[in-house]
Amino acid sequence: MTVRTVVDGASTDILSVANLPVLWICALGVFAVITVQTLIYVRAARAEGPAIGISPAELKTSFRAGAVAAIGPSLAVALVAVALSTVFGTPAVLVRIGLIGSVGFETGAASIAAGTMGADLGGPAYTQSVFAVAFMAMSLGGAGWMLATLVFTPLLKRGDAGMRKVNPAVMTVVPGAALLGAFFALGFGELPKSGNHVVAFLASAAAMAVCLGVAKVLKRRWITEWSLGVAILTALVVTYFVVGAGVFTAA
Known about the structure:
globular
């Protein structure tokens, strides 16, 4: 049975072009690039770890902790990907939202691009031409994520080496401070949105504190590895029941 692809800029049959084989080939190419990058980073970490006092066991623990911590955010991305697959098609969703970029950025860029053509995402005026423009906006905007990795990684490496020569203790503080700053900036940015956001923030913070406390008392490092995933799931569950109970209502 032959499936005929209908390409017509005025057509609203988005999926007939959103799932073209060429887009699947491009998506697989991006998967390949990211896989190679991951292998390079893992190999570099194993090679440089002993030189900065990180044992193979600690590296293994950090890799495992990172994998566990990625479960919660990955589930959220998967749910969003399923919802948006009818708007952007599976290849675009896998690449732009599942691998590179973020849901907020990608959908925002696509929405603005569609708006310039007088259309809304998924609306009656969302034609193949609008999809092409929206997809291009997402791709061009997100290309910076990959280019930044290629361009800035060597620069940051040289900066790191220079700072270690001046004061080695600085680089033991800067990474931790950067992570704390990033998490607090993201977290506090959500608080003004609604009471439900405050509940999610406090629930996740409490769950994290409990996990770290229990891990310290029981001397079980694996609890620390699972702490981020537990905090995310706890916040989701608590917020679900708070929303269902209608504790906070829209003004």
